[in-house]
Structure formats: C-alpha cells, structure tokens
Amino acid sequence: MIIGYILWGPDNGSEMFSDLDTLTEAKKCSDCGFRVDYRETNNLFRIKRKVYDFSFTYDSIAISSLKFKEFCNRNNYGNIRFMELERSSGFYQFILQNSTIPFTAREVADLCGSCGQHEIVVGPHVDLGQLETPLEDGFYQSNILYGGRGRLHDRPLTPVIVVAPDTKEKIQKVGFKNMVFEAIVKKNDLTTTPIAH
Ligand SMILES: [Zn+2]
After folding, report:
1. Which of 7, 118, 142, 156 has its CB 3.0 to 4.6 Å from that of 160, i.e. a possible disulfide?
2. What mean pLDDT is predicted for residues 152-160?
3. 190 alpha carbon to ligand 1 midpoint, in Å?
4. Distance in Å, CA 30 to ligand 1 centroid
5. Measured between alpha carbons, how far is 92 from 52 in angstroms, rounded to an integer?
C-alpha cells in the first residue's frame, strides 16, 4: 500500500541567501554559525531558472510558480504559506504549516548547544508505524528538519515535503513537469517480524 509520496524537485540555479551577497544576510547562530530558520525570505532574491513550477534553491528552499500556487488554492490546500518574492514576480517561497508526519533520520550528529540544531541530519525515512492508511489529499511535512551543512552552499535545515496519493494524481493530471515522487510504501503483511536495530 502506498501511503504517500516524498516530493522532490529540480534545482532552479538560485540561492535564497548567498554568502557572496553583501546586501542581505540570513540569521545565523552566533555559536555554530549556521542558519537558524529556513522560512526566512530574502526580499532581494531573484530566481534564475524560471521554467519550473516547483523547484528548490541550492540552499534547499522550496519555490512555487504562480501556476502551482493557483493549483493549490483551487484544491483548497490551506496549510501552505506562499511568500511573495518581490524581485521574482510570479514566484513564491513555499512554506508548509503544521500537517507533520513522523520521520526518522539515518544519521544525526553535531548538536549545537546554542541553537539546538544538529549540523547533520540526513537520510529521511518515514516512520510507518503510526501510519495505517494512505494520507488524505494534501501536503504534509516531516516532523524533523534535514540537511548536511557546512558544504558548498550555506543551507538551513529544511523539512521533507510529502503529498498524498490523490494529490500526486492531481499534480500529474495538470501536467506539472520535473517533479519527482518517491513512493512511501507500507507492507500489509502482518506476519512479518519487525527487524531489530
Ligand atoms: Zn548553533
């Protein structure tokens, strides 16, 4: 049984906040030096590749086109904040509110005592134990934030975005391109013994 799909998108060749940009700076932890809030919007942000309706910046920020925003509005997906991007007309920062589902991470390391965030949270995996049926039409997000930081791009930790099976169908029916859906599968075989870790 497919519970839902993790939603991935292409990179749009842009950065919400760039270290090279001296005019705007993201809020950072004074101790570890990493960004503390992925929801922060850079009013000077310009999207470089405008061909995608749903994409990610190099620093892992989800960006929606007007067409995708209108699709979400038409379907009454009310848990999404579309932050207007002043210098990128027709594009919005896509921020989910609430609607979290349980996730685990393959590796969690390097906790910062000041901001309470880990430097490394990688290998997102849905905790299927609490999910018995396919998700209801709509968008969801992981209950933990992911990222491996301190690399080429200064990224904040961000949630993994999940859609319901019905939502995936609707997205594909409209014909939005370049969106990648990774199935979240729950096996129904009750005789299977859980694997001990
Ligand atoms: Zn910190």
Report:
1. 142
2. 88
3. 43
4. 7
5. 12
